[in-house]
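Table S2 (continued). Query chain:
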Amino acid sequence: MPYGTISCMMTRRLGTAVLFLLFATAAWAADVTGTWKGDSQGPDGNTFTLSYTFKQDGAKLTGTALGPMGDPLPIENGKVDGDKISFSVKVDFNGGMVLSSTGTIKGDEITLKTKAEGGDMDMPPMTLKRQK
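Corresponding output:
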């Protein structure tokens, strides 16, 4: 076979392999659609339960957060990237603040870290569990 034919075949095979890896990675990406709950500790030391209802569409994440006050708050700027999740929630507390969360998805658990933007109120890490 001429060199150009071999080079063309290798390029096609490499392209096919790259496409396969991209599709395989998308298939393995976590789908967090559903309800997740976890307990967190407030600054006063009291424990309270947080509930998140996520809806995932590809990498886009929407949904609501339900805290101790019982009002559903919309999730903003949500995304899922492989086993990583991130989103923010605006809360009407102390004149209003934005809580930004990042986490790692492992099966039916998400380890979540949350911090207040522009403030010093970081919450301790928490584990969310998928509700079935």
